[in-house]
Amino acid sequence: MDRDLVVAAQRGDQAAFVDLVRFRGGRYFAIAHRILRDVDRAEDALQDALVIAWRDLPSLRDPDRFDAWVHRILTNACIAQARRERKQITNLYLLPVDDPAAPDELLGVADRDLLDRGFRRLTPDERSILVLRHYVGYEPNEIAEVLGIPAGTVRSRLYHAHRAMRAALEADARSAVVGGTIR
Amino acid sequence: MSRQPDIDRVLEIWMTDGPTAIPDRVVDVVAARIGVQRQRRAWPFPWRTTVTAPIKIVAALAAVIVVAVAGFAVLGRPPGSNVGGNPSSAPSPSQGTGSPAPSVSAAPSASPSASAVYPAWFTGDRQGAGILPAGKQSTRNFRPGFTFSVPQGWVNVGDGVSSYDLIADTPANAAEQAASGGLAHEVSAFRYGSPYWFCDAWENHRGATAAEIVASLVATDAITTSKAVDVTIGGLTGKQVDIRLDPSWTETCPGDPASLDLGDMRTRVILLDTPSLGTLIINVGSLHSAGHEAFLAEAMPIIASFKFELAQ
User: Fold this and answer.
1) Which ipTM was obtained for this model?
2) Residue A31: its chain B contacts at CB < 8 A?
3) Nearest to B18 among A73, A99, A115 (CB)
4) Taking CA atoms, what residue in B is nearest to A111?
5) pLDDT (tens digit per residue) in A146-172
6) How far away is chain A from the Cα of B311, in angstroms, using its nearest Cα?
7) Residue closest to B28 by CA, chosen among B63, B64, B73, B69
8) Is B208 on the interface with A (CB under 8 A)?
9) What is the pLDDT of residue B260?
10) How far is CA B67 from CA A55, A123, B98, B105, in A?
C-alpha cells in the first residue's frame, strides 16, 4: 500500500522510497516530459525532484498528500530546468517531436506539430499550469495550492496559455516556421 | 480540425501523447543518490537526527559506504540497465540504526549556488547562498520570497521553495557542529501545513491559521509556551510565542537516540498568515538554553527587516 511506503520512507527506509518511485514514477515522468518536451531534461528534472522529495519527506505531514506534494516539487524542478536550459534557436522545425502521434479523430500530425510549437513558446510557468490542468486534471484552485501561487494568477496564466495555444492552432502551418525562443 | 477548437479537449488529447513509464536508469540513479542524501527532519531541530551515539555513527557510516559502492556500480552501468533488482530486498539503513545516513554530497538541490562560500567548520547541507555580505539580501527560491538586512557574519545554508535557513558564523555553532554535528542556534523560515517543534509523536498540531496553530501548541501537554502576542512582519500578520519542552515532561521522543536531551531546547516561533500560501513559520531556535536570549537579540532585528513579496 502506497501510504505505508510513504510512512516507511519518511522514517528513512530507502527501499520503500525506491518502491514508491517505481510505482508512481511513471506518472511523474510523464508530467515532467509534458512540461519540458524533452526526455533527457525530463529525466534530469525528475531525478532532482525525487532526491529533494526524499530529503524533505519527513516534513510531509499527511502521507496521503504525497502525490500532490511531489507534484509541487517536480513542477518547480521542471520550471528551474526549463529556465536553465533556455536557449535561442533559429528554426523551430529543427526541434524533434518526441513521440509519434497516435491517430485519432480530432488531432492530426500537423495539428500536433502546431501545438508542440505553440507550447514551446509558452513560459515554463504557463506550460506547467497547462500540464497540471489538462494532463493531471487539477482544478485551478488545486494548481494554485500545488504551485503556491494565488488562484487568480493561475486562472490568468491559464487564460493566456489557452489563448496562445488556440492561436498556434489557428496559424497557418507554413507561416509557423519562424525563429523563436525556447523557454 | 475545426478552426474554432475546443482547446480544453484538444489539449487533453494532445497530452496523452508521450511516455508514461519511468526509465529504469532514472530509478537507479535516484536509488544511488538517496543513498548519500541525508533526510531532513522537520525544523526546528534537524540536529536531533545528527546527534547520535558513537556506535550508531559507525553503523551509519558503514551504510553510507555500502550504498556509495552500490551507487557507483549502478552509475557505471549502461543507461537503461536495471541493476537494482528488487529494491525491497536491499537492507534499509533505517533498520538497525534508526539513524539517517550523514550526507556525503551536496548535490541535490533545486539551485544551490556553485560559488557559495561557507564557513570552514560548517559540514551540513550546503543548499543556500553561503556567507552573506552585510546589507540587503533576498531569497532566491523560497516562496513567498522576501528581502531582509543582515549584519556581517550570517550564512544562508538553505534556500528551497518551502524552507529558508540562516545561521550565524559563531564559535557556538562551530563548537556544536564539531561536538554533535548539529547547530547551537538557527533561524528558519518555512511553510508546512502542520509543523512540529519537539517531537512528532507528542504533538498534535492542527490548524490552518497562525492563531489555530498557536492554540494547538498551547494545548500540547509536552510543551510550555509563553503568552502569544500579535505580530506584523514584512506586511504579514500573525502570532509570536516562545516554546520549550515542559520541564515535567520526561518521555523520550520515539526514534531519537536515548542520549538526546530535548529539555534544554528553546525556540521562538513566529507564525504569519499569508494570502495564498498558508501559514509561514519562522523559528528562532537554540539547542541549549545558554545563549538563546543573546541569539534572539541578534536574530530578531533581521527577522524584523523581512519584507515579503506577495504580489504574485
Assistant:
1) 0.82
2) none
3) A99
4) B1
5) 887 888 889 999 999 999 898 888 874
6) 9
7) B73
8) no
9) 59
10) 16, 39, 16, 13
